[in-house]
Automatic annotation (TrEMBL):
This is ABC transporter. Keywords: ATP-binding, Nucleotide-binding, Transport. Residues 2-232 form the ABC transporter domain. SUPFAM superfamilies: P-loop containing nucleoside triphosphate hydrolases. It comes from Roseiterribacter gracilis. Signal peptide: none annotated. Belongs to the ABC transporter superfamily. GO terms for molecular function: ATP binding; ATP hydrolysis activity.
């Protein structure tokens, strides 16, 4: 569905995307993550054919972003991280305008606007001016504008920004539903627990380069077992005893490290620590999740 090759994008004096290549299959929900300044927003703008890359090639649904940007705009919905609204238009007019601009036939527009407003809980606001909406409702209108033309690909940059917890939950449910209907989604966010609720893939950028592009469940299954040791009080010998495992000190009482060899190895390690007089409170496996996967992948890249 999306094919990116050797993508390069330069701001004056700064290379923001540095030779990215990856594919995204139709129907995937991709969590686009990376440290601040990694290039996520720039990448989304290039895929949405709003910025022109200095090199490389992007195809979405077989359409070349450089050759046919207008055609692409009809097939893509994009919520930008800082987006403007037509403040003096009503919510209905904003959605109708977007539907029109993105090629929805006149006869279908009213139904699309109504259905999209329903999905985002915007029906009571349809005749209110966009300029009077609170931050969370503006955000919902922004999302509705990205969806109203039922695009094949939806790009959402920080969609949960400004939403209260209940609205975030509703947004997660909505994204799951949209993905089930076959839409390809790319969602950028720093809130990894939320992304984990609905994403099938994770695409990690750092410094304008691709760190990884993988299926989340497979990557988590394949992740090495991380163990956490918790002490009842600080112990000067513990780091020396764990030396071969390259421990990371979470704080003065907690250390994390990977351990091969399953329960046998864990049991042997526990015996070794206790025998050496280390005041062990707990030794156990840490559950792998998207956040851990991310931290492991970006470690050393920044
Ligand atoms: N208009 C601009 N002019 C110059 N440099 C820019 C411009 N916009 C972005 N950059 C730089 O390009 C790099 C990538 O920026 P981008 O906004 O794409 O990153 P990001 O991953 O979305 O970051 P964040 O997580 O902070 O939103 C950053 O180093 C940023 O400072």
């Amino acid at each position: 569905m999306i094919r990116v090759r050797d993508l390069v994008f330069d701001y004056p004096g700064h290379r923001a995307l540095d030779g990215l290549s990856f594919n995204i299959d139709a129907g995937s929900v991709v969590a686009l993550v990376g440290p601040n300044g990694a290039g996520k927003t720039t990448l989304m703008r290039c895929i949405a054919a709003l910025d022109t890359p200095g090199g490389g090639n992007i195809q979405v649904d077989g359409i070349d972003a450089l050759e046919a940007p207008r055609e692409l705009h009809r097939r893509i919905g994009f919520l930008q991280d800082f987006f403007g609204l037509y403040e003096d238009l009503s919510v209905r007019q904003c959605l109708t305008y977007q539907a029109m601009a993105r090629g929805v036939a006149r006869a279908e527009r009213d139904d699309r606007v109504q259905a999209t407003a329903q999905r985002l809980g915007l029906v009571p606001w349809l005749d209110k001016r966009a300029g009077t909406l609170s931050r969370g409702w503006r955000q919902r209108l922004g999302i509705a504008q990205a969806l109203v033309h039922e695009p094949a690909v939806v790009l959402l940059d920080e969609p949960a920004a400004g939403l209260d917890p209940a609205a975030r939950r509703e947004l997660s449910d909505l994204l799951v539903q949209i993905a089930r209907e076959g839409t390809t989604l790319i969602v950028s966010s720093h809130i990894l627990t939320e992304l984990a609720d609905y994403s099938t893939h994770v695409l990690i950028l750092a410094g304008g380069q691709l760190v990884s592009n993988e299926k989340i469940d497979q990557a988590i299954r394949a992740a090495r077992r991380v163990m956490r040791l918790r002490l009842t009080r600080p112990d000067p010998n513990v780091e020396n005893l764990l030396r071969d495992l390259n421990p990371v000190a979470v704080d003065a009482l907690q250390f994390e490290f990977t351990l091969d060899g399953g329960d046998e190895a864990a049991s042997a390690l526990l015996t070794k620590l206790v025998t050496a007089g280390v005041p062990v409170a707990e030794l156990g496996a840490v559950e792998a999740d998207l956040e851990r996967l991310y931290l492991e992948r970006v470690r050393g890249t920044t």
